[in-house]
Amino acid sequence: GKGGYDHYMLKEIHEQPQALRQCLQERVDELSGAIDLGDDLQQTVRGAEFIQLVACGTSYHAALYAAQLFRSQGVPAQAFVASEYVTAPPPYSEDTLVIGITQSGETADTLSALREAQRRGVETLAVTNVVGSTASRECADALYIRSGPEIGVAATKTFSAQVVAANLVAAVLEDRGTHHDFASALRDLPSQVQEVLDETNAETVAERFVDSEAFFFIGRGYDYPVALEGALKMKEITYEHAEGFAAGELKHGPLALVTSETPVFAVVTGETGSKKTVGNVKEVEARSAPVVAVTDGRTDVGRYADEVLEVPETDSRLAPVLANVQLQLVSYYVAERLGRNIDKPRNLAKSVTVE
Ligand code: F6R
């Protein structure tokens, strides 16, 4: 059941601290800070010279994020929309690893991309929530995100767990061995998510902007996939026009869309170019668009914002998870005000088993 919540989506948003604890359990050693994903998987990951990620929708946003993490460890990595990977397969080498990120493990496009990789004799890894799913059975290796069942069509807790799982893989890539600071940041993440859930003002923000013409989301670096995900969640469950942009792309076209009727959600966390995003916020403000800053307070972006959705400070690589929780809540409350069918949005299915 919905455990006292009006919708599965809200229940699942609130299950995120637990979902992340499960994802981390026995993979991060409390004392030494060592990260352990099992010998087989670690060998596969460390043997990879190139990584290609394939995924759809929300999982694609997790893949974009993962690719950036892996690149930061010096491993060339690229995320592909699964259907495009199949349409125009990129070059590969013997040492390429193809990682499919798929909550359900049943998404037809992602399975096709993984099968394409297997036909080429390339190593495959499934990052999935469902034990025994097609992706987990067909790939050479599987990494389970252990979120528990997700019933709402909109992916919430599974996105957060995918991002945490990607961080674990990146840590193994770097052979960080024991990395106390990062391990303790990981350990604190579930309670920081809880803090966001307990203290959020997302409902107020939703109420203020529910009648907007459109919703825009910007971010750079690790905040960029969060901007895309914030927009996808918004359009999916509210049926309103929403778009996510790399903050730096704003002035290359999208800025023409920005008016006083279009709030811009600026995700500004960590160290990845936050200052530049503050510059973009000023540009938006000059066009009289309302600004909602989703921020950890490392910059003064709050000074230029009409509303602030605060997140606790953590490692730059993890902060986007917290920012995303705020955006999930804003979308939820906008959809609720608009009376949408939140758990089963029109035209959408939880598991898309046709290409
Ligand atoms: C968005 C959403 C979809 C899925 C996509 C991939 O909230 O749920 O975009 O993320 O259909 O699904 P999986 O992860 O099961 O492959």
TrEMBL record:
The keyword Cytoplasm applies. Keywords: Aminotransferase, Cytoplasm, Glutamine amidotransferase, Repeat, Transferase. One of its GO terms (cellular component) is cytoplasm. Its EC number is 2.6.1.16. It is found in: Cytoplasm. GO terms for biological process: carbohydrate metabolic process. The keyword Signal does not apply. It catalyses: D-fructose 6-phosphate + L-glutamine = D-glucosamine 6-phosphate + L-glutamate. Residues 41-179, 205-345 form the SIS domain. GO terms for molecular function: glutamine-fructose-6-phosphate transaminase (isomerizing) activity. The active site is at K350 (for fru-6p isomerization activity). Catalyzes the first step in hexosamine metabolism, converting fructose-6P into glucosamine-6P using glutamine as a nitrogen source. Homodimer. This is Glutamine--fructose-6-phosphate aminotransferase [isomerizing]. It comes from Halospeciosus flavus. The chain holds residues 245 to 599 of 599 of the full protein.
